[in-house]
Design goal:
The complex is a heterodimer of chains A (281) and B (568). Chain A has one helix at 2-17, and strands spanning 38-42, 50-51, 55-65, 72-79, 86-88, 92-94, 110-119, 128-151, 168-170, 178-187, 191-200, 205-216, 219-220, 222-225, 233-235, 242-250, 257-280. Chain A is mainly beta and 281 residues long.
């Protein structure tokens, strides 16, 4: 009996030490940190490494949302399967809403896209042919940047027993591939200006990035992307996956005070992977 | 006194082995242009072997052992000029030969001479590698350069340079010890010739253009073919001289390249296309060839797919073939073997056989009758058929027994990959092309169609330019075609069919009319055409669509083989 209790205790200790959330209670763990994104995997043997002509095979793609935000309108596409050697029955599969990781769902949602492909005969005299194809996941998601900032109308930083403005801060991410990695705070006599470096730090490609709402405390901030004057939407280029967002707000008090800064982003994202299949006669 | 000096000069020159190497080199240089096919290859091989042995025995004296080893192992045993498989074993044998030479030298030395005699023996034997290197350079340099491991693509001028250099002459010039007026003149002429040639030695690109590894004689035959073709093209040294005399000193290299290319185009239109100079057809041909040269993208090429097993047909003469036939044995009958490999699913190839006996000087011939089955139906994937030839008239003397087979209804399929990107333009197009390259690999790999290394194949391209593998629906599409005869025979009759489902164009199929020269020509450019219509799903592809197309060349192919026989 005692041995069982001791074994159970050791097992519990082992399980606790293996937790993904070391030293933290899962209910208080902040999932909105670091760079996390959807992961794309082929199920084992789907596709198989070798396939036969005049037969079907399956391609099954598992999408696991490791980000802290839901994936909406997620679509998995099969691209570049050589035709007419391969005849896929469909090349596009929509996934249901995949919730992000949270205290209620700490591992993140999973979805599966399944494709059936028929293999035609190889050209005469050919015994083997290796072909590469690509799967791409396209989705829409959000990201929220939240921090507590010190705001003061005091231009010269004279200590007024309140808080001190930190004019440049760096961040490791907000639990999504799109991340605010740096913030600058610039005080002017009438308003405060925040400059955010927004970057795609994930493995895929971010397309349109939109600022949904931006608040300093309860006050709305006026935002625009630096390279798109007056606009809160930007299309990121393939080789330039970053942008600078400028937001301005009014200062409510003469003395320094701390308040919450919240910026909500939404974005379109594409993530791909390739795989080879050999057709063997 | 003057007569004495001349006599001394002649004596000094005649006793110098280097001079005779120069003379031999000059003798070897010219006939190789004018004797074609296997006889030409044999002449080249014999002269080059003699010069190699002569250089080993006389010019490099103690270095005779390496040429002898090379000659015995490489030539007599029909070794292959394949750097990977033949030269390395040869190198080991050579090293053993050098060691033997060192041991002999040590064994035959005595006293003070014995000291270091082993090392001296080895090093003296090593200089024998020089004539061997010149032998390889003379008979097979281009073959070695364009095949793996070098796989260089030689420009037309550099090919001409390599072929127009009399290598043995330069070895003779470098080793001659005679200081006579004649030798000095030859040295001056040699340097002048090099000065005119050297500026044009340019090797560009890196792409294998021959896939076969033929045996030794075939290697020299290939080299011979290039030499025969190039002989009709102006010697670069002559081109340069003419350009200089025209005062084109500022753009000398461009002028030489132009002259060479013009000569090549004229040769193509006269000899391959068989148009008489000055005719409208000839002018049109030159104009078309010039356009093709200006826009290399329009020149359709193809490549061999190593994953596809090729069809092979060859005549073999085994040990039982009677090279000498005595009429006392009865009626002369000569049996060769037709060996074939047809790695295809449905096989039924008709082989029409014929034979004759041609006098060695080719002045007359006696028709032969195939007394074995004829025609043959080749229906196995791999097999051998005996082909027995009997003369229909009495034979007496030395002949060449010539066997021929026309293989009817051969089919070779070529495949081509293309990536359709719809109507994307600008940054979207660039992004999509980057994704294609990331997924599929280097796009240049998809420029040309690929086929098995069969005797002949059709090369085809389709795209905004025929060799561009990425197709945008914003621009028009065109098709380019050529037929490649990569075997050693002749294409007798040919037609083709492109399988482009949903495409409308005027050149999707057709017969290929062939002149006599075109039947044996390595490449025939066919007229291409514009694509009038193609499927909507490719025209409006949202993401890139990878599509493979195929083309089939239907053809009859003739191969011949000959063997010397003596009937008495």
């Amino acid at each position: 009996m005692n041995l069982r209790i001791v074994s159970l205790l050791f097992l519990s200790l082992f399980l606790v030490s293996c937790s993904k959330f070391p030293g933290e209670d899962i209910t208080t763990y902040n999932f909105a940190q670091g760079i996390k994104e959807a992961e794309l995997r082929f199920l084992q043997n789907a596709p198989p490494k070798e396939v036969l002509p005049s037969a079907d095979f399956k391609i099954i793609v598992e999408v696991e949302n490791q980000a802290a935000y839901p994936l909406e309108d997620a679509v998995v596409s099969l691209i570049g399967l050589k035709q007419p050697l391969f005849q896929p029955f469909t090349t596009r599969e929509e996934l249901p809403l995949l919730q992000g990781r949270s205290a209620l769902s700490p591992l993140g949602d999973k979805g599966f896209a399944e494709f059936d492909v028929f293999v035609n005969d190889l050209p005469p005299g050919k015994r083997q042919k290796e072909e590469t194809f690509r799967v791409e996941l396209a989705y829409h998601s959000t990201m929220e940047f939240v921090d507590t900032v010190c705001v003061t109308a005091n231009l010269y930083g004279i200590y007024d027993s309140g808080c001190t403005v930190n004019d440049r801060k760096s961040y490791r991410g907000q639990g999504a591939p799109l991340a605010v990695t740096e913030m600058q705070e610039i005080i002017t006599p009438s308003e405060v200006e925040f400059r955010f470096r927004v970057e795609n730090k994930g493995k895929g490609k971010a397309n349109f990035v939109n600022v949904n709402d931006a608040k300093l405390g309860s006050d709305e901030l006026r935002c625009e992307f630096l390279s798109e004057r007056g606009r809160t939407t930007i299309k990121l280029g393939k080789d330039n996956q970053e942008a600078v967002l400028v937001c301005r707000g009014i200062i409510r008090a003469q003395r320094s005070y701390t308040t919450t800064l919240t910026i909500g982003f939404s974005y379109d994202y594409e993530l791909g992977g390739k795989r080879a299949v050999s057709v063997v006669q | 006194m003057a007569i004495d000096t001349v006599r001394q000069d002649i004596q000094a020159t005649a006793s110098d082995p280097g001079f005779w190497l120069i003379a031999g080199g000059l003798i070897a240089f010219f006939p190789s242009y004018f004797i074609s096919g296997t006889p030409g290859a044999v002449v080249t091989l014999v002269i080059a072997s003699l010069l190699m042995l002569y250089a080993g025995f006389t010019v490099f004296r103690d270095g005779w052992i390496i040429p002898v080893i090379f000659f015995v192992v490489g030539i007599v045993l029909q070794g292959k000029i394949d750097l990977g498989s033949a030269l390395y074993p040869l190198l080991i044998i050579t090293i053993i030969g050098m060691l033997v030479h060192g041991v002999i030298r040590r064994a035959t030395s005595s006293g003070e001479e014995r000291k270091g005699s082993f090392g001296r023996g080895i090093s003296k034997a090593a200089v024998g590698a020089i004539p061997v290197i010149f032998f390889i350079v003379d008979v097979a340099l281009i073959h070695i350069l364009i095949n793996p491991p070098f796989s260089l693509r030689l420009g037309s001028v550099s090919t001409a340079f390599l072929l127009h250099t009399p290598w043995w002459v330069y070895l003779g010039l470098a080793t001659t010890k005679a200081q006579t007026g004649l030798v000095k003149f030859l040295k001056f002429a040699g340097i002048l010739y090099l000065v005119l040639l050297v500026p044009f030695l340019g090797i560009t690109g890196a792409q294998a253009s021959m896939q076969v590894t033929p045996d030794f004689l075939e290697t020299i035959e290939t080299e011979q073919l290039i030499r025969e073709r190039e002989a009709r093209i102006e010697n670069p040294a002559v081109s340069q001289f003419k350009c200089l005399s025209q005062g084109r000193t500022l753009d000398l290299s461009a002028c030489v390249a132009e002259r060479q290319e013009e000569a090549r185009l004229e040769h193509h239109c006269q000899e391959i296309e068989e148009h008489a100079e000055g005719t409208f057809a000839y002018e049109t041909c030159v104009k078309e060839q010039r356009e093709l040269h200006k826009h290399p993208d329009a020149q359709i090429s193809g490549k061999v797919d190593p994953n596809q097993e090729p069809m092979k047909f060859v005549f073999r003469f085994d040990e039982g073939f009677p090279s000498v036939f005595s009429l006392a044995w009865g009626e002369p009958r000569f049996t060769a073997l037709l060996e074939y490999e047809i790695p295809r699913e449905e096989i039924d190839i008709l082989a029409d056989l014929s034979c004759n006996f041609t006098l060695r000087d080719r002045t007359a011939s006696v028709e032969g009758r195939i007394s074995s089955s004829n025609p043959l139906h080749l229906q196995e994937r791999k097999g051998k058929e005996s082909v027995t030839c009997e003369p229909i008239a009495p034979l007496n003397g030395s002949y060449k027994a010539v066997y021929a087979v026309i293989l009817r209804a051969l089919e070779t399929q070529s495949d081509l990959s293309r990536f359709f990107i719809g109507d994307k333009e600008g940054e979207n197009k660039t992004d999509e092309i980057a994704i294609i390259a990331e997924t599929e690999g280097q796009l240049s790999e998809f420029a040309d169609s690929s086929a098995a290394a069969d005797p002949a194949r059709i090369n085809f391209g389709i795209g905004n330019t025929p060799r561009d593998p990425v197709i945008s629906s914003v621009r028009s599409l065109s098709i380019g075609l050529s037929v490649e005869n990569s075997g050693k025979g002749r294409i007798i009759d040919a037609s083709y069919q492109l399988h482009l489902p949903g495409f409308a164009a005027s050149c999707l199929s057709g017969d290929i009319p062939l002149t006599d020269h075109q039947r044996a020509a390595p490449k025939i450019v066919l007229p291409g055409c514009a694509v009038d219509q193609y499927p909507e799903y490719l025209r409006h592809a949202e993401r890139y669509a990878d599509h493979e197309f195929s083309a089939i060349l239907h053809y009859d192919y003739e191969i011949t083989a000959e063997k010397e026989v003596t009937v008495s």
